[in-house]
Amino acid sequence: MSNQISIPEFYSGKNIFITGGTGFLGKAIVEKLLRSCPEIDRIYLLARAKKNKTASERIQEITDAPLFDVIRAKNPEIFKKISLLEGDIIKENLGLSDNDLKIFYEKVNVIIHSAATISFNEPLKIAVNTNLQPIKELIKLARKTKRLDCLIHISTIYTNWFERDIREKIYKPKYDPNEIIEMSKTLTDEELNKISLMGHANTYTFTKSLAEYLLSQEGHDLPAVIFRPSVVTTTLKEPFPGWIDNWGGTAPTLL
């Protein structure tokens, strides 16, 4: 045990690439890294323009949020460690420019894949493009990095909710993930929505399950971790109790 290092020590000097940094969980990850691991070198956030706002404006909105008040008061200069890499998870190479791909390959040490659509009612094509296809792109890009220490894929405990006991293992789905990806490219929305979800209650858990298996098979040689949170809700203590920025899930009940 003597050779183990702490989490802040591990992240010291590291460059972290985060997808989904503009989402609820992504924001919490960025804030926690800045506050608890101040010796990180840089956080690269993947973001795209959306709803008449540029990618840069969306990143600025994140750091202006109340979630960051504690770290802002303590160390306002720490936000200089955040850099934007403009792109889109549903595009080839995540939509990154040649210059940003060069940064990714040469500098990134840790990839945290938080981006996802968490809507239970999403059409299958959208769910596949958002929750499944990006894993293939990340695996491809991760293999080209020069200093990768870890690829962290944020999944959900409900990927295999119909199992009586959910173990820390990968469950083989009844569909080949690559076949579903190809079908999403060739079939119409109407045809896709007729596909049986094989026991899954919605397209969210269905595509998340496929993504786990795809990573385990095609990314088996990578230093990858799959994290399965359960219900994600307000902050308990850090940086202060009760922070939330949406009305999804259990938030209305808790309020």
Features:
single chain; 255 residues; alpha/beta; Rossmann fold; 6-stranded parallel β-sheet; NAD(P)-bd_dom_sf; FAR_NAD-bd; Fatty acyl-CoA reductase
Description:
InterPro entries: FAR (IPR026055), FAR_NAD-bd (IPR013120), NAD(P)-bd_dom_sf (IPR036291). It comes from Polypedilum vanderplanki (Sleeping chironomid midge). One of its GO terms (cellular component) is peroxisome. The chain has 255 residues and is an alpha/beta fold. It has a single domain, classed as NAD(P)-binding Rossmann-like Domain (Rossmann fold), CATH 3.40.50. The chain is 38% helix and 11% strand. The chain contains 10 helices and 6 strands, in the order H-E-H-E-H-H-E-H-E-H-E-H-H-H-E-H. It has helices at residues 7-11, 24-36, 55-64, 69-74, 98-107, 124-142, 177-186, 189-192, 203-218, 251-254; strands spanning 15-19, 42-47, 82-86, 110-113, 150-154, 224-227. It has a 6-stranded parallel beta sheet with strand order 3-2-1-4-5-6. Helix 6 crosses helix 7 and helix 6 (124-142) runs parallel beside helix 9 (203-218). The longest helix is centred in the middle third of the chain and has 19 residues, at 124-142. The radius of gyration is 18 Å and the shape is globular. The relative contact order is 0.14.
Radius of gyration: 18 Å
Order of helices and strands: HEHEHHEHEHEHHHEH
Distance between the termini: 43 Å
**Proportion of residues in β-strands:** 5-15%
CATH topology: Rossmann fold
CATH superfamily: NAD(P)-binding Rossmann-like Domain
Q: Which structural class best describes the helix and strand composition?
A: alpha/beta
Overall geometric form:
globular
Number of strands: 6
Protein name: Fatty acyl-CoA reductase
EC number: 1.2.1.84
GO molecular function: alcohol-forming long-chain fatty acyl-CoA reductase activity; alcohol-forming very long-chain fatty acyl-CoA reductase activity
Keywords: Lipid biosynthesis, Lipid metabolism, NADP, Oxidoreductase
